[in-house]
Amino acid sequence: MSQTISATRVATLVGAFDRSPAYAGLAEAMTELIGDGRIGLGVRLPSERDLTEVLDVSRTTVTRAYQLLRDGGYAEARRGSGTFTQVPGGRSRAHDRALVPGTGDGDTIDLNCAAASAPPGIAAAYAAAVTELPAYLGGHGYFPAGLPALQAAIAERYAARGLPTDPGQVVVTAGALAAAALVAQAFTGPRDRVLVESPVYPNATQAISNSGARLRAVPVDPGGWDLDAVGAALDEVRPTLAYLIPDFQNPTGHVMSEADRATYARHLRRTGTVAVVDEAHQSLALDGQEMPRPFAAFDPRTITLGSASKSHWGGLRLGWIRAPHEQVERLTRARLGLDLGAPVMEQLVLTRLLANDDVVERHRDRLREQRDALLAAITAHLPDWRFRRAGGGLAAWCELPLARGTALATEAERRGVVVAPGPAFAAEGGLDRFVRVPWSRPAPELEEAVRRLAAAWGVVREQGAAGPRRPARVMVA
Ligand SMILES: Cc1ncc(COP(=O)(O)O)c(C=O)c1O
User: Fold this and answer.
1) E-assigned strand segments in 112-237
2) Ligand 1 within 6 A of 427 CB?
3) 280 touches ligand 1 (CB under 6 Å)
């Protein structure tokens, strides 16, 4: 059964809306509430008659306001059952559109994907790895736990970060996303609950929920994690797993302090919940700062996910799981029902790349320059946007003065720049006040992208609730 919202509740939420003219002011206020998530998605709005009575306005005011909501993509009429809330583009927008190719006109700047091009040194590592391949060709080539040399190289990295690790604790996967799916498959089913953050990297939550587990979201605020809320949610739903991104959280860029890791781990122990910690962005500290110790150093039951995509290149399609010894067997078994192992060639390449930090260091230098260029451009061209200067990772999480992230993304796309609006990262709707802007492209491209975003923002801000906000195309990913 769908949720409904009463006319009285809508009246309380819209408060003293702008009445010049009233229909536009009402539509504006309701658009804001739907975009913010204060009125949820798929909620049946009060009938025009009820709202007319409670607001003490004319029936035409409410009729025209609802019409504006529908035109803007914030509501839809369902024959015989009423008017229901939605966001432009529908829930399909709530997917990271990373896998969607650009719009094809060659001039489009795609900032939808927070992943950079390959740093120098990747092709050389491939060329060198080819010479090692013959040694493997006499075998069947299946390594469900990973190439032993790569397992050892990954284990060494953890040890260097203060987390002694045996190579046998590492399972190499085709990326961190596949690792998340594998963990969910191995440890959860339809009876389980999984705690997730919001905003969050949406492909991971989708991968997790594919196993049938139900998600419970806890907000990550502009200031960081609210550990009291985490503790309360854990006590309430006693989830099997908690998926978190403590190192340059995607999309907010936050890093969880060691003290917070210790507190979080205490909460988890109380409810017997196991942390699934996604470290995809961990190696991207751009200011030379020391990173906190891995979450698993605070709770040995932790299952850690790693990725070569952000540290090196997404095209390697390699990631891994670091798990306590006693869980490795279960993970490897689950893996046999999926893909039997990751490609040998790429594992040889990554083994080489992990042997020294040159490539990653050059990669970080480039990202630092791009980050600084992007943030300077946003400050110059979009002075009413707010963002926190993240010390690493790949993106700025920008807060707009109005909940118009989806409208902005739509208008920006028309002007040749693709960005993901806040709702793409919202585990339970809302966040339309935000947009994620990655620094994944060269500086001049980022500067041009910001100029286009500023032009798009000018239009969206002017339009208010009255302008057309239908997305240029519906996205899938
Ligand atoms: C937090 C997080 N986890 C996982 C991934 C995907 O990683 P991979 O390419 O290794 O599958 C990403 C990519 O954006 C990410 O941001």
Assistant:
1) 170-173, 193-198, 214-221, 224-225
2) no
3) yes
Helix axes 22-36, 7-14, angle to 10 degrees: 100
Q: Which two tokens stand for residue 461?
A: 């801000």
Residue 218 pLDDT: 95
H-helix or E-strand spanning residue 150: helix 148-160
> CA 420 to CA 406: how far, in whole Å?
8
What's the CATH code, domain 90-114+359-463?
3.90.1150.10
> 196: which residues sit within 8 A by CB, 6+ positions away?
205, 208, 215, 216, 217, 218, 242, 243, 244, 427
**Amino acid 90: pLDDT:** 60
Distance from residue 164's CA to the centre of ligand 1 (Å): 24
Task: Tokens for 110, please give them.
Answer: 């795609």
> How big is the CA angle at 313 (ends 310 and 316), to the nearest 5 degrees?
120
**Is the CB–ligand 1 distance for residue 252 below 6 Å?**
no
Q: 113 in ligand 1 pocket by Cβ < 6 Å? A: no
Domain boundaries defined on the chain: 7-85, 90-114+359-463, 124-355
* Ranges of the chain with pLDDT below 70: 1-2, 36-37, 89-106, 465-477
Pairing, β 170-173 against β 319-322: antiparallel
Query: What would the pLDDT profile of 130-167 be if each residue is shown by its tens digit?
Result: 999 999 999 999 999 999 999 999 999 999 999 999 99
Query: Which helix (H) or strand (E) covers residue 421, if one does?
Result: strand 420-421
**CA–CA dist 406, 424 (Å, integer):** 9
Distance, CA 457 to ligand 1 centroid (Å)?
Answer: 29
Count the neighbouring beta carbons within 10 Å of the beta carbon of residue 137.
8
pLDDT in tens, 83-96: 999 877 664 443 34
Q: Ligand 1 in contact with 175 (CB < 6 A)?
A: yes
Separation in Å, CA 295 to CA 261, 305, 309, 325, 386: 6, 11, 20, 17, 29
Q: Are 370 and 446 in contact (CB under 8 A)?
A: yes
- What is the pairing mode between strands 170-173 and 75-78? unpaired
* pTM flag (> 0.85): no
Mutate to test the pocket of ligand 1, among 173, 177, 206 (most ligand atoms within 8 A of CB): 177
Which of ligand 1's atoms lies nearest the C-alpha of 307?
10
- Both tokens of 165, joined, read 């690790």
For the domain spanning 124-355, the CATH number is 3.40.640.10
Topology at the third CATH level for domain 7-85: Arc Repressor Mutant, subunit A (1.10.10)
Alpha-carbon gap, residue 243 to 208, rounded angstroms? 9
